[in-house]
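Hi V.,

Quick status before I head out on leave. The structure for the redesign project is tokenized and pasted below; the design run finished overnight.
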């Protein structure tokens, strides 16, 4: 939700314009969103690769490798807290500062994703490419749909939010209570559906926000927030698809 800001001085405006590229029309606005999002995805990939290549990912497991270590949970829930805080505070910080938070969050996701990637590499390495390809295709189709459709998708908001909260709760419960294969498969399918719809929903909201916001600084802040939302949807779809492709 965009909050109204007080008038800023010319000096502050010039400083902000130097620290963050200004959008030029909706094309520039969307280019900035996707540049930030793809940059975040790239950072996640690099972080995950380094964790796997150096063997550092073993520190995310406990001594017997039967579960995750305290470090893993600190990073996992720390990343979740960071994403929530960033979304709440994004319109109270410089666009460049918000972009750095997005980068930090992307790195944390790359680190905490490595156990899933390690398991996938041991079962079926090709599944990583398949999951990434399918997630990319679904993301592109749903983003285009959300941008082009004339149908108001705002009615999806409450259902998607409830679905996301449900998925988070199931994920937390699964830490303490193992889920059956069948139930885990259903959860993964629901996860893919929820975040595919979130992609279209967020894309339409971002387009509408551009038409509503007149301040360039807020447009740059919204671009970072939009990149974060789309990044989360893409990564979530990738992870759920990867889990589906590696069911034993």
């Amino acid at each position: 939700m965009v909050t109204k800001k007080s008038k800023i001085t010319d000096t502050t405006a010039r400083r902000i314009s130097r620290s963050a590229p200004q959008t030029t029309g909706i094309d520039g606005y969307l280019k900035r969103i996707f540049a930030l999002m793809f940059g975040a995805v790239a950072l996640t990939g690099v972080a995950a690769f380094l964790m796997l290549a150096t063997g550092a990912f073993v520190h995310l497991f406990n001594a017997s490798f039967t579960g995750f270590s305290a470090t893993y949970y600190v990073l996992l829930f720390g990343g979740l807290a960071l994403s929530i805080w960033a979304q709440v505070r994004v319109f109270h910080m410089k666009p460049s500062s918000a972009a750095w938070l997005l980068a930090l969050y992307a790195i944390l996701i790359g680190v905490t994703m490595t156990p899933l990637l390690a398991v996938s590499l041991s079962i079926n390495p090709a599944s990583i490419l398949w999951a990434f390809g399918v997630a990319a295709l679904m993301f592109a189709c749903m983003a285009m749909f959300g941008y082009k459709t004339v149908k108001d998708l705002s009615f999806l908001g409450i259902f998607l939010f409830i679905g996301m909260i449900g998925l988070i709760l199931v994920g937390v419960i699964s830490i303490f209570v193992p889920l059956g294969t069948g139930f885990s498969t259903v959860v993964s399918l629901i996860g893919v559906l929820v975040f595919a719809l979130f992609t279209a929903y967020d894309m339409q909201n971002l387009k509408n926000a551009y038409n509503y916001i007149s301040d360039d600084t807020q447009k740059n802040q919204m671009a970072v927030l939009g990149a974060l939302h789309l990044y989360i949807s893409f990564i979530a779809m990738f992870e759920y698809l990867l889990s589906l492709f590696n069911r034993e």
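Above is the designed sequence. The longest helix spans residues 181-212.

G. will cover questions while I'm gone.

Best,
W.
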